[in-house]
Amino acid sequence: AKKEGPGVSRSYTPEMDKKLRERRSMRRELASAIERGELVVFYQPQAEIAGKITGFEALLRWRHPTRGWVSPGTFIPLAEESRLIVPIGEWVLREVCREAASWPLPLGVAVNLSPVQFQHSDLPGLIRSILLETGLASNQLELEITEGVLMDDSGRIASILREVKALGVRIAMDDFGSGYSSLSYLQSFPFDKIKIDRTFVTKIEDNPQSAAIVRAVLGLAHGLRLPVLAEGVETEEELAFLAREGCDHVQGYYIGRPLPIAEYAGVVGRI
Ligand code: C2E
Ligand code: CA
Ligand code: CA
Ligand code: CA
């Protein structure tokens, strides 16, 4: 580790040095993860409140040769900083569309998009060619975007989203209520669905504030005629609360965990 001196923050520790080197090597390894076949897509069911599974959210995993399973919470930020998220995001989109096109049942599939993917590529063109190439019906595909996307040049983003929607693809507002989601986003951008963030759902029973926020989001979204999906549903009690309040769709460990698609063979109609 370095000696302390002028320009070196007092809070700098050998511990941080190690973390920094760790992140650098992980970033290097991530660059070759696609070609090495280390990226894996898991699928988590999404259901109507009454129980019928309508589709899945695609959630990326990194099967690292020595580190084991690395969570997207760790490597997505690294991929965004280094812009590796552009090729990785393209790989995910292609992989997921190819997979969903092979299902006997025409279930929906939702893919997360990073803000960085909007800055870079011709996103509508990419989506259009992947749909053509894989043969997936556009109405089976949904894209989940967070407010991070909308905070950029809003006119440009709105027009990209309109182009994507013109293909027949749906757009969901992800993690609603967390971060700085502004109510005006709901008016300025053409969403088809609102996803309530897991942090509010987890505390529904024991935190009156969370319950109030969930109720308010449901009222607001329904006022705008937008269906709502609650994420992170882990218990029967949470599901019952959401049903009582008129939530439309749910997702969470109580319904099903993110797993390799083979584990859901029966659901997609392969059995
Ligand atoms: P997210 O989009 O909010 O996804 C939901 C997260 O909640 C997932 O974490 C999921 O595994 C977890 N989850 C679902 N149900 C439950 C539950 O009942 N209880 C608990 N405790 N957790 C639940 P995961 O898979 O670790 O992904 C974390 C984040 O990484 C995602 O949050 C998303 O922002 C990002 N991410 C994942 N895959 C991709 C991807 O392909 N592209 C991009 N850009 N981001 C991705
Ligand atoms: Ca999501
Ligand atoms: Ca979330
Ligand atoms: Ca709870």
TrEMBL record:
All copies of domain EAL, residue ranges: 23-271
Superkingdom of the organism of origin: Bacteria
> What stretches pass through the bilayer?
none
What protein is this chain from? Diguanylate cyclase (GGDEF)-like protein/PAS domain S-box-containing protein
The organism is Labrys monachus
Print the organism lineage. Bacteria, Pseudomonadati, Pseudomonadota, Alphaproteobacteria, Hyphomicrobiales
Q: Which residues of the full protein are shown?
A: 516 to 786 of 786
